[in-house]
Amino acid sequence: MSPITVAVAADNAGVALKKLIAEQLEGDVRVAEVLDYGVHDDSDDRAYPRLGLAAAEAVARGDADRAVLICGTGIGMCISANKVDGVRATVAHDSYSAERSIKSNDCQVLTMGSRVIGPELAKRLVDEWLGYSFDPSSASAAKVAYITDYEHQS
Ligand SMILES: O=C[C@H](O)[C@H](O)COP(=O)(O)O
């Protein structure tokens, strides 16, 4: 896989973890570019959908290949990102879910909760997650296509 562009975003609950994840991504040879949609410090109290939607829209436009979004639980970021057409987002705080989010579901967006997961595990999951790719010839592809078809109907 050639190096990819990864968007990151967080609300003020997740900004410290986002900074660690962004630094790790910037040092990863599998990542060509990190696009940071904010917030940049915890004095910025913009609500999570504003940040998460901006990053997810970047994925939908093709400006980013994937995104990592952080809030307190990961839940609000996940709900927000999934509202953007063509975007599949999941909360994952364990290795197996992070893996299957790519291999089964072709999720472009991983969300995590800074109040749920510790920084070292979060960094490890992102490292693993970068190593997975979706196989469009797999049996999972038709299942994901069902979701895309549904989106296109509405
Ligand atoms: O899902 C939402 C996030 O956890 C957010 O960081 C905190 O939201 P709240 O302030 O509404 O609890």
UniProtKB/TrEMBL annotation:
Catalytic activity: D-erythrulose 4-phosphate = D-erythrose 4-phosphate
Signal peptide segment: none
EC number: 5.3.1.34
GO biological process: carbohydrate catabolic process; carbohydrate utilization; cellular response to carbohydrate stimulus
Pathway(s) served: Carbohydrate metabolism; D-threitol degradation; Carbohydrate metabolism; erythritol degradation
Highest taxon in the source lineage: Bacteria
Keyword hit for Lipoprotein: no
Keywords assigned by UniProt, alphabetized: Isomerase
GO molecular function: intramolecular oxidoreductase activity, interconverting aldoses and ketoses
Keyword NADP set for record: no
Recorded family membership: Belongs to the LacAB/RpiB family.
Name of this protein: D-erythrulose 4-phosphate isomerase
Native source species: Actinopolyspora mzabensis
